[in-house]
User: What shape does this take?
Amino acid sequence: MKRIIAGYLQDDSDQGQFRFSLTCVECGTVWKSPPIRFSKAGVPSPTEAKQIVFRTLYQREWEQARERAIVEAAHGFNWCPLCGRLVCNRCFLICDDLDMCRTCAEDLHERGDPVA
Assistant: This one.
């Protein structure tokens, strides 16, 4: 699931903070991760060597923030095994035999309850 979410995750980061978002393909609801401030945001890098250090540190912190966002997003999204789309919990139904998105449930005349 983490790999699927990673493929859909939008990077909304800038030089001062890390932030990611995910959009439900069913209803269009957008989930945004809480912003995480870059530890060196606003700190001048007086030398080229320090710039290299800051870029490397930024990349490391970005990767950590992205991993955290993926874990958090997994609590609010599900992957439909029928159509292969990533949908929010409100658009994902727990059905009797196989859990699926609302569209697939409607197409197959299945009933279910949202994950909530």
Summary: The first strand starts at residue 10 and ends at 11.
